[in-house]
Specification:
The chain is an all-alpha fold. The protein is built from 5 helices and no strands. This is DNA damage-inducible protein.
Length: 88
Amino acid sequence: MKTEMVRARVSSQLKHESEEILAELGMSMSDAIRIFLSQVKLRHEFPVELKVPNQETLKAMQESVTDDRYDSSDDLFNDVLGSDCAKN
């Protein structure tokens, strides 16, 4: 039986953006919090790995993303792996 309430203060922007994403996944904020707490109970640990990015990762995050477009997944794999790998 659900009788307890959990409250947390967050920015309105964080709440709004999170609710939009969760709605796309078909769940409410309450659903997400219940899933999170269930995972804490199940794992007996924080269910998300928290890391501070190292310098190499930070540099990669700041680099521009490619504008390359592909007509098919085969074209993408041919470009990334080379045409010989895509045939296997």
